[in-house]
Specification:
This protein has helices spanning about 20-30, 40-50, 55-60, 175; strands at about 10, 15, 75-80, 85-90, 100-105, 105-115, 115-125, 130-140, 145, 150-155, 165-170, 180-185, 190. By secondary structure, the protein is an alpha+beta fold. Helix 1 packs antiparallel against helix 2. The longest helix is centred in the N-terminal third of the chain and has 12 residues, at about 20-30.
């Protein structure tokens, strides 16, 4: 996986205005420079990104053409030179869902197009089942985040169109290959199924 690095842009009149993606990377960079626990870092990133997301068409221009209508793999957009964070795009088809999984680090998620439905889980029954602990539906413009532990979830595109979301991870995804720590293939127990 090779992350794209934005080229330096200049014109005859001086430096070109940074793109919305470049401004987003700078905002994340500023939010992650003060050492703090993971939850504080992700909260700062979520706050900084709210209302400042790049348009979906700019994100889609940065991914391979074959991924623009949906892909089973996330698309690496940026790795900070010091490895402190990475940004990937998840482009999903209607009905497409991730596995139930957790992460190696904190994560902020920004939906830039479409609708994503998230289910959160905890381990129950001595690790033999997943307990559904919450759900949320995110539309374009929504930014949320979480930090381990307590980050077991699944995301599904429940809309009628391709969904595009940006995922910011507090690690060098190019180096480690994935943000997923574990996937879970366990029965799901919903709150009304609990005696």
């Amino acid at each position: 996986m090779q992350a794209k690095r934005a080229p330096s842009r200049t014109t005859a009149t001086g430096p070109e205005t940074p793109s919305p993606l470049e401004r987003m990377y700078a905002a994340i960079r500023a939010s992650t420079r003060t050492p703090a626990n993971w939850q504080r870092v992700v909260d700062a990133v979520v706050t900084e990104l709210s209302g400042k997301l790049p348009p979906a068409d700019e994100v889609l221009r940065e991914v391979p053409a074959q991924a623009r209508r949906g892909s089973d793999r996330s698309q690496l957009l940026h790795v900070e030179p010091d490895g402190s964070f990475s940004v990937v795009a998840l482009i999903s088809r209607p009905g497409q869902a991730t596995s139930v999984h957790d992460h190696t680090t904190w994560c902020a998620v920004a939906v830039v197009a479409g609708t994503e439905y998230e289910q959160r889980f905890s381990l129950g029954e001595g690790g033999r089942a997943l307990l559904l602990t919450g759900t949320r539906t995110d539309q374009a413009g929504t930014v949320s985040g979480f930090a381990p532990p307590g980050d077991i979830h699944r995301v599904t595109n429940t809309g009628p169109t391709v969904a595009v979301s940006l995922h910011v991870y507090g690690t060098d995804i190019a180096r480690i290959g994935t943000s997923v720590r574990r996937t879970y293939h366990l029965p799901i127990v919903e709150p009304n199924d609990i005696d």
